[in-house]
C-alpha cells in the first residue's frame, strides 16, 4: 500500500484550535465496528470533547500484520462508522511514518500548542499497555481515558500499568475535566457496552465478541 492511494485529506493533521479538547482514538479498525463508534461517542460525551481523531494505524506493533486489510480500506470503512461531525478519521501515522503511539502523540502535542489532548482506549488495551513502547512517557504526556469493554472490566485493577499509575487515577465523576488535567491522569469510564470485536467479524461472527 502506498500513500498515493490514500486520499490526501487523511494524511494532513485535522484542524483544531488552542483551548479545544481533542480525543485521540487509535486502532487497527480491521474492520471497524459499532463497538468503536460506541467508544468514540461515549468519549465525546463523557469527556466533553470538541473533536475525536479516529487514528487508523498502519499496523499495531504488537500484532502480526497477517490478515490486516489495506489502510485505504480500513479508512473508508471507518468513515462509514463516523456518524458524528466531531469525529475525524485520519491516517496521520502513515504520514508520520510511525506506528508507535508515543511518537505519534509527541508529534501531535508539539504541533498543537494549547490544545488539550487525551488518549482513548478500550479496557483490553490497558491490560497490554505496559508492553507499548515508552508507555510511561505516553502517560506523562497526555491524560488517558479507558473505556469499559466486556471481558476486560477488571483490567483497570489488575493490569501492570493500572497498578503503576494508581496514584494518577481520577474518579469517573470528574471525567469531564480529564482532558485539561496535567498528566499523568487517567480515568475508567463505564457505560453502554458492546460485545462486538474485529476478530469475531473477521471470523464471520459479529455478535459473539
Ligand atoms: N467492543 C468494544 N468495547 C470497548 N472498546 C473497544 C471495543 N472494540 C474495540 N475497542 C477499542 O477500540 C480500539 C481499537 O480496537 P481494535 O481496532 O483493535 O478492535 P478490536 O475489536 O479490539 O480488534 P481485534 O479483535 O482485531 O483485536 C482499542 O482501544 C480497543 O480496546
Ligand atoms: O506504541 C506502541 O508500542 C503500541 C503498541 C500496541 C498498540 N498501540 C496502539 O494502540 C492502538 C490500539 O491498537 P489496536 O490494534 O488494539 O486497535 C493503536 O493506535 C495502536 O497503534 C501502540
From TrEMBL:
InterPro entries recorded: Cyt_trans-like (IPR004821), NadD/NMNAT (IPR005248), Rossmann-like_a/b/a_fold (IPR014729)
Residue span(s) of domain Cytidyltransferase-like: 24-203
SUPFAM superfamilies cross-referenced by the UniProt entry: Nucleotidylyl transferase
Pfam families: CTP_transf_like
EC annotation from Swiss-Prot or TrEMBL: 2.7.7.18
UniProt enzyme class: transferase
Domain of life where this protein originates: Bacteria
UniProt keyword terms in alphabetical order: ATP-binding, NAD, Nucleotide-binding, Nucleotidyltransferase, Pyridine nucleotide biosynthesis, Transferase
Catalyzed chemical reaction(s): nicotinate beta-D-ribonucleotide + ATP + H(+) = deamido-NAD(+) + diphosphate
CDD domains reported in the protein's UniProt record: NMNAT
Pathway the protein contributes to: Cofactor biosynthesis; NAD(+) biosynthesis; deamido-NAD(+) from nicotinate D-ribonucleotide: step 1/1
GO molecular function: nicotinate-nucleotide adenylyltransferase activity
Function (record text): Catalyzes the reversible adenylation of nicotinate mononucleotide (NaMN) to nicotinic acid adenine dinucleotide (NaAD).
Entry's family note: Belongs to the NadD family.
Full protein name: Probable nicotinate-nucleotide adenylyltransferase
Organism listed in the record: Martelella mangrovi
Amino acid at each position: 500500500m502506498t500513500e498515493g492511494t490514500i486520499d490526501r485529506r487523511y494524511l494532513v493533521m485535522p484542524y483544531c484550535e488552542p483551548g479545544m479538547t481533542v480525543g485521540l482514538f487509535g486502532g487497527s479498525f480491521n474492520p471497524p465496528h459499532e463497538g468503536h463508534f460506541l467508544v468514540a461517542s461515549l468519549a465525546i460525551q463523557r469527556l466533553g470533547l470538541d473533536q475525536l481523531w479516529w487514528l487508523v494505524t498502519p499496523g499495531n506493533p504488537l500484532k502480526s500484520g497477517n490478515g490486516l486489510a489495506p489502510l485505504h480500506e480500513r479508512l473508508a470503512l471507518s468513515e462509514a462508522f463516523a456518524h458524528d461531525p466531531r469525529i475525524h478519521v485520519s491516517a496521520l501515522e502513515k504520514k508520520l511514518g510511525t506506528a508507535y503511539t508515543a511518537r505519534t502523540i509527541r508529534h501531535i502535542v508539539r504541533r498543537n500548542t494549547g490544545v488539550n489532548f487525551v488518549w482513548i482506549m478500550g479496557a483490553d488495551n490497558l491490560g497490554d499497555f505496559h508492553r507499548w513502547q515508552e508507555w510511561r512517557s505516553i502517560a506523562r504526556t497526555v491524560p488517558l481515558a479507558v473505556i469499559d469493554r466486556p471481558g476486560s472490566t477488571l483490567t483497570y485493577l489488575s493490569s501492570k500499568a493500572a497498578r503503576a499509575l494508581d496514584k494518577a487515577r481520577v474518579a469517573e465523576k470528574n471525567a469531564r475535566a480529564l482532558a485539561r488535567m496535567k498528566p499523568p491522569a487517567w480515568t475508567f469510564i463505564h457505560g453502554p457496552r458492546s460485545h462486538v470485536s474485529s476478530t469475531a467479524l473477521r471470523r464471520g461472527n459479529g455478535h459473539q465478541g
